[in-house]
Design brief:
Elements lengths: L35 E2 L4 E5 L6 E13 L3 E11 L6 E15 L4 E17 L2 E18 L4 E15 L5 E15 L2 E14 L2 E21 L9 E17 L8 E8 L3 E4 L14 H9 L18 H11 L29 H9 L19 H12 L22 H12 L19 H29 L2
Antiparallel strand pairs: 1-2, 2-3, 3-4, 4-5, 5-6, 6-7, 7-8, 8-9, 9-10, 10-11, 11-12, 12-13, 12-14
Helix pairs in contact: 1-6, 2-3, 2-4, 4-5
């Protein structure tokens, strides 16, 4: 559940003059000031004096959350380039949360609870006299990824100590973001009008916070070893931003930029030892999934050319995307009944199948049969992945053409998924531009498709929510 003001108490814990970063998935800018941070330093530009002044230092974050409300408090102690430049700020926000479980969505409303701020630049001091804010967010909670969007509007009024004149900042903005196991990005854009006794000017702050996980092959050089190499999962976080501004009496736009990165987190994964993959086109994809624990085959032979069945593919997608699984009741007086007659609730990984069905990722072959051991077709695989992403409704209105030569052979239930999967690069047609919806996938083909699914969550969403928003808007 991500918001413009993300609940960062679990992410950041004040340690004297530094941040402490944890591995939680959320990523979000702090507050509404366009600032960026890493483990140790926070920095932002301040325009209250009519020109950009860069302040940096530390921020402490605290808060608490219930099912219906969240409070957050940010305390800043920053210094500027001059010996007398100093910024102290304390602001608390309260967010009311409304979880609409039946819709799979969450809405929230944020306002200011308390505030204080004093900015000293050269010999002048500005004191925050009033702060008003209204901000709303909607989050669409999909199985493999959450997507959210918010809007904010507010006003800050400072009093200039030397003259007693007000400096008023009117601002409005928006934020977009997503969060899944493989990445999280939030981009915030705030447009401000600064009204001073010396004139009016504008400032637009753009800032994006991104967290990404990816797999990296690490060779094992010694010849006398039981393995030749393995994979590490690397978690990275970076923030980039810029301020586009004018100055009193001028319409010329100028730009200053900010950016911070954290030290990557490295996790070594189990080593794949399949003996039948040397020279195979899908070797890297298969070994990556095995390293992630998606395949738990005890055999040293993967058999990449054999068919992939529905049951292991669905379990693999759930594991690869880290989709939450329904919990088995601790105290159950009667044996659990399977959701389909051809499933066994005592079978290993059964809860992954039940969870996938409950979340709308997979469907049965009939009202009573799931057909777990049936061959997985291209149409089924694509539908499962697109439903997990929650993107099936992004297809055009009914009546569209998918663009494939065999468009008419694509089942109605898979058409939207086939169209969307093609648009986002999950699947392509064959040499004759045929989709081949009933073609059974091999274990190698299913592995390659799953890796493309993970890359979409890792790379493509980040591109869309960060680079496209910052550089192509």
């Amino acid at each position: 559940m991500n918001k413009l003001l993300a609940y960062t108490a679990a992410l950041l814990l004040a340690l004297s003059a530094s941040f402490l970063f944890t591995s939680a998935a959320s990523a979000a800018p702090l507050d509404y000031n366009g600032g960026v941070y890493n483990e140790y330093t926070y920095e932002e530009y301040v325009f209250v004096s009519g020109k950009p002044v860069k302040f940096s230092g530390r921020v402490t974050v605290s808060g608490r959350e219930t099912d219906t409300q969240r409070t957050e408090t940010y305390r800043y102690t920053l210094t500027g380039p001059g010996t007398k430049d100093k910024l102290t700020r304390s602001v608390s926000y309260v967010t009311d949360i409304d979880e609409k479980t039946e819709k799979g969505q969450t809405t929230s409303q944020t306002s200011v609870k308390s505030y204080s701020e004093k900015i000293a630049i050269d010999t002048e001091t500005y004191t925050l006299d009033d702060y008003q804010l209204s901000q709303g967010t909607v989050t669409d909670n999909r199985p493999a990824s959450d997507y959210y969007s918010g809007n904010a509007a507010g006003r800050k009024t400072y009093i200039q100590k030397s003259s007693g004149a007000p400096v008023t900042i009117h601002f409005s903005g928006r934020n977009v973001g997503y969060e899944n196991f493989w990445g999280a990005t939030e981009t915030q854009i705030i447009d401000s009008e600064v009204v001073t006794s010396g004139g009016t000017f504008s400032v637009t702050s753009k800032v994006s916070d991104s967290k990404t996980k990816f797999l990296q092959y690490e060779p094992h050089e010694p010849d006398l070893s039981s393995f030749t190499g393995g994979y590490a999962r690397i978690s990275e976080q970076s923030m980039i931003g810029e301020y586009v501004y004018t100055q009193p009496g001028s319409s010329v736009e100028q730009t200053v930029q900010v950016g911070q990165e954290r030290v990557p987190l490295i996790e070594r994964l189990i080593v794949p030892k399949f003996r039948d993959l040397n020279g195979h086109w899908a070797k890297e994809d298969i070994e990556q999934l095995y390293a992630l624990g998606v395949f738990d085959d005890s055999s040293t032979f993967f058999s990449p050319g054999t068919r992939m069945n529905r049951y292991p593919f669905i379990v693999g997608v759930m594991k690869a995307a880290d989709i939450r699984v329904l919990e088995q009741p601790k105290k159950q007086k009667t044996p659990k009944k399977a959701i389909f007659s051809d499933l066994d609730p005592q079978e290993k990984d059964y809860l992954y199948i039940e969870s996938a069905y409950a979340k709308g990722i997979s469907k049965g072959y009939s009202a009573t049969k799931f057909s777990p051991n049936s061959a997985l077709t291209r149409a089924e695989a694509v539908a499962i992945l697109v439903r997990a992403l929650g993107l099936e409704y992004r297809a055009p209105d009914p009546g569209y053409h998918t663009g494939y030569v065999d468009d008419s052979s694509i089942p109605k239930w898979a058409r939207d998924s086939a169209y969307v999967a093609t648009q986002i690069g999950l699947v392509y047609g064959d040499a004759n531009n045929r989709f081949n919806p009933t073609k059974a996938l091999t274990r190698a083909e299913a592995s390659a498709l799953t890796i493309r699914f993970l890359h979409f969550m890792e790379k493509d969403l980040k591109q869309n929510y960060r680079d496209d928003m910052l550089f192509f808007q």
